Amino acid sequence: MSEPITGPFKNYYGIALAQEYAAKLSAAYPDFPAEAFVAEIAREIEPLELVGRVKLIAAGLRKHLPPIYPDALERLLAILGEGLPDDGGMFNAGSWVYPIATFVEVYGLDDFDVSVRGLYEVTKRFTSEFAIRPYLVRYPEGMLAHLHRWAEDPNPHVRRLVSEGSRPRLPWGKRLEIFVADPSPTLALLEKLKDDPSAYVRKSVANHLNDIAKDHPARVVETAARWYADGDDERRWIVRHGLRTLIKAGNADALAILGYAASERVGATLAISPAHLSIPGALTLTATLSNQGDQPVEAVVDFCIHFIRANGGTGGKVFKWARLTLAAGETRTLVKRHPLRPVTTRTFYSGLHRVELQVNGARLAELRRTLVASVPSAFHA
Fold first, then answer.
1. What's the count of helices (H) and strands (E) in the chain, helices before strands?
2. What are phi and psi of 115, to 5 degrees?
3. Pick from 249, 271, 263: which is nearest to 315 by CA?
4. Which of 6, 58, 194, 325 is a good FRET partner for 260, with 20 to 30 A between their CA atoms?
5. DSSP secondary structure letter of residue 1
6. Would you state the pLDDT for residue 2?
7. 378 neighbors 274 (Cβ within 8 angstroms)
């Protein structure tokens, strides 16, 4: 788009983009009712959020393009233009294609073969990671067969779709319960991609592996151990990134893969300051670690805050701190400032909060503080 967009990203999907679609389609197909299409979008788009705006543009395209879906899709594919560079660009150069991806997602489910071609072409210019998910639900065998072929495609965006589109717990995407229940089909895809030459693809593989770890930790540990044992630095990066949820949870088997042994030889103390802290503010944690053995110890240091929930129970959230090597007999002090401020994803409730120090998955020290969740909120010693 020629004019810069100010304000929230949703504004990108506005009247100017509708006009751009109208211009592209009219240039290729003079019978496209450009004025009616733009006027319809302009009447309804203002109060909508991002996804609603994208769906509105897609609905307008469906209404004003030929009534037969394959014919309508053919016109949209004809205006796609050049593909993205190999290293990304989907959310800048390719953002304008989002309504076409949604068009395929919403209107193409009854035309599998035609829509699969659409998914393939769209993902080379934007991404089909959201649009492909209803197809995996309705046509799991047929769609997986395509994904196995696409895992060997020369285009890295297509290969990334193989991993990203089949992630069982893709953020902002519909959860794929079939793969949450049984990750075997997508693990077979990841086996084909674990040594992909593109870092862009490998990052998706790691994130996919991390998704599976939330439901099938033993399967992921087995896979990660095998990949790590005979892998190069790039594959080992996938393993480290893919095990991050299990590492934060203190899974001993996952830690062992990365060389972090049990921490019996490590002594630890934990201190928290200040005694009174208003929100917004910060909690400062001071940990002292000592290696009490005669061999170096590789250590992953995290801390866990057990937040009070609305029902009065607690839920622990682990936060990363440090990775370090303690020499034999060494004592080291770590200091961490952790902000405590209102966020949309967490409501603070008054009550006794437990803060634990975690080293290589073992909880070695803890303190308890009372959080007063009024304004101002405070931790009290």
1. 16, 9
2. -70, -35
3. 249
4. 194
5. -
6. 42
7. no
Angstrom CA distances, 54 to 58, 79, 342, stand at 6, 17, 30
Q: Would you state the pLDDT for residue 373? A: 63
User: Which pLDDT value is given to residue 69?
Assistant: 98
Q: Which residues pair with 304 in a beta bridge?
A: 318, 356
Amino acid at 155: N
Q: Where does the pLDDT of residue 375 fall: very low under 50, low under 70, confident under 90, or very high at 90 and above?
A: very low
52-80 pLDDT per residue, tens: 999 999 999 999 999 999 999 999 999 99
Distance between CA 184 and CA 180 in Å, rounded? 10
Cα torsion angle, 170, 174, 176, 180, sign:
positive
Tally Cβ neighbours within 10 Å of residue 61: 25
Task: Confirm if 269 and 317 have CB atoms less than 8 A apart.
Answer: no
Q: Are 157 and 90 in contact (CB under 8 A)?
A: yes
Cα 264 to Cα 88, 138, 251, 255, 328: the distances in Å are 45, 51, 15, 14, 13
SS3 328: coil
373 or 75: whose pLDDT is higher?
Answer: 75
pLDDT digits (tens, 9 = 90+) for 132-166: 999 999 999 999 999 999 999 999 999 999 999 99
The residue assigned the tokens 């006027």 is 39
The amino acid at residue 99 is: P
Provide the β-strand partners of residue 291.
266
Q: Diameter of the chain by CA atoms?
A: 81
Beta sheet of 331-340, edge-to-edge order: 266-273, 281-291, 331-340
Tokens of 169: 């717990």
Among 299, 302, 300, 339, which residue's Cα sits nearest to residue 320? 302
CB 102 within 8 A of CB 62: no
The HSE-up count of residue 294 (CA atoms within 13 Å, CB side) is: 0
Whether residue 144 contacts residue 185, with contact meaning beta carbons closer than 8 Å, is answered with yes
